[in-house]
Design a protein that fits this description.
Layout (H helix, E strand, L loop, with lengths): L1 H37 L1
């Protein structure tokens, strides 16, 4: 049971981290696209 809790905890952390990373990258990508459109 302890192992299962640790695993799900790590999974949640990883998911939150990758979501934050994805948000950051997609924001950068959108800014890049907007800059290209403006240029």
């Amino acid at each position: 049971m302890v192992f299962h809790n640790v695993e799900s905890c790590a999974g949640l952390t990883r998911r939150a981290f990758s979501t934050k990373l994805w948000e950051k990258f997609s924001t950068l990508g959108n800014a890049d696209v907007a800059r290209r459109v403006v240029d």
